[in-house]
Amino acid sequence: MKAIQKILLLTVLCLCYTGMLHAQLPGLPVGDPDVSNAPVDGGLSLLVAAGIGYGAKQLRKNNKRNIK
Predict the structure, then answer these.
(1) Could you give the number of structural domains in the chain?
(2) 22-52: b or e for each residue (b if 16 or more CB lie within 10 Å)?
(3) pLDDT of residue 53
(4) pTM for the complete prediction?
């Protein structure tokens, strides 16, 4: 149970601190309209899909173990 609480706390902290991360070039002002933001969606969506797939696999594995 302690491991699940630690993982949950780490996940919540990571989600809370993502607002402070900015992809900026050094020396440029914060609101410069000529600089585009770094793309995050492609890799992030793949990680979420992989996490969901891994979770589903573990649930099936645990269900098979409990049935026997």
Answers:
(1) 1
(2) eeeeeeeeeeeeeeeeeeeeeeeeeeeeeee
(3) 93
(4) 0.41
